[in-house]
Amino acid sequence: MSIDWASLGQVFGISLVATVGLVGVFTLGIVGHSARGANGTPSALGRLGAFTCYALCLAAVAYGIYIIAA
């Protein structure tokens, strides 16, 4: 049995970048969702950014499931 170390390294690197990126986008969503305006109420721009980040995360997960199921 022979292991293709270059391919294994590529899979590891892409998985690492995708995971860190997805967690980073989700974290930005949490930060945007907790953003407060001057009077202490939730910021509309923060909510829009948060929901955009959550939508990107949902799209990435759905694409991953599509790749696995196809």
TrEMBL record:
The chain crosses the membrane at residues 12-32, 44-69. The keyword Transmembrane helix applies. It comes from the Bacteria. Keywords: Membrane, Transmembrane, Transmembrane helix. This is Secreted protein. The lineage of its organism: Bacteria, Bacillati, Actinomycetota, Actinomycetes, Kitasatosporales.
